[in-house]
Amino acid sequence: MTQKSTKVRALTEGAIMIAAATVLGYLRIFRFPSGGSVDLALVPILVYCLRWGPKYSLLCCFVNGVLQYFLGGGIAISWQSMLLDYVVAYTLVFLCGFGAGRKLGWLWGTILGSFGRWVSLTLSGGLLWYMYMPETFLGMPMVDPWIYSMLLNGVLVVVVMAVDLVVLGIMQSVPALRSQVLAKQTAQ
User: Fold this and answer.
1) How many domains, in total, are found in the chain?
2) What is the per-residue pLDDT for 168?
3) What are the C-alpha distances in Å from 18 to residues 7, 31, 107, 129, 163?
4) Does residue 92 carry a pLDDT above 90?
5) What's the rounded mean pLDDT across residues 120-141?
6) Which CATH number characterizes residue 91's domain?
7) Would you place residue 188 in the very low, low, confident or very high pLDDT band (cuts 50, 70, 90)?
8) What is the pLDDT of residues 49-86, one digit of tens each?
9) Residue 90 belongs to a domain
10) Is residue 176 part of a domain?
11) Does residue 187 sit within a domain?
């Protein structure tokens, strides 16, 4: 495969995965009362990251973040929250690409991408959404918006990550899917 055809294939796959993520984003499994939801929208994006690595994943994750806001019914209180809650948070999922082609890369890559997303969401919560902090959360009194943001977004990200890891684990355990869908793509 030539360098040009590799780029075309990467862009084409990225567009397909973003389209699949957009559709899966409408099929919510659970919606949290404080915001956020559990769905399978990140699975195609994670698969793309694991196939193409961080170089190509950065653009794919950025475009996905923008579309998640505009097409997924995003809620923002300012342009800063739009950036941190959607664009930056979903762009940081590209970190999953560092697991591409590595042993258990699907596992620790997903954890790394989820951690990046959690950092951005926590910053947004601590800096921008603090005025909506309840008096108690998970049975604990809340007095610090940063602790609340870490806990709230931690619960959201861990639940989404667990669902994504189950799906990716199933894909990893099926030899045909592992070799065809999760195989790292390289330029020749």
Assistant:
1) 1
2) 94
3) 16, 21, 21, 28, 19
4) yes
5) 81
6) 1.10.1760.20
7) very low
8) 999 999 999 999 999 999 988 887 777 788 888 899 89
9) yes
10) yes
11) no
Q: Which residues lie closer than 8 Å to 84 by C-beta, 6 or more apart?
A: 120, 121, 123, 124, 127, 128
- Would you tell me how many other CB atoms lie within 10 Å of the CB of residue 185? 17
Q: Residue 15's domain spans which residues?
A: 3-180
Identify the pLDDT of residue 187: 53
Dihedral sign (CA 170, 175, 179, 184): positive
Side chain identity at 22, as an amino acid letter?
T
Residue 41 lies in a domain: yes
Rounded CA-CA distance 12/40 in Å is 21
Angle value at C-alpha 97, between 86 and 100, nearest 5 degrees:
155
Diameter over CA atoms, the chain: 59
Q: What is the DSSP string of 9-76?
A: HHHHHHHHHHHHHHHHHTS-SEE-TTS-EE-STHHHHHHHHHHHHHHHHHHHHHHHHHHHHHHTT---
Beta-bridge partners for 136: 141
pLDDT of residue 161: 97
What local confidence, expressed as pLDDT, does residue 1 receive? 63
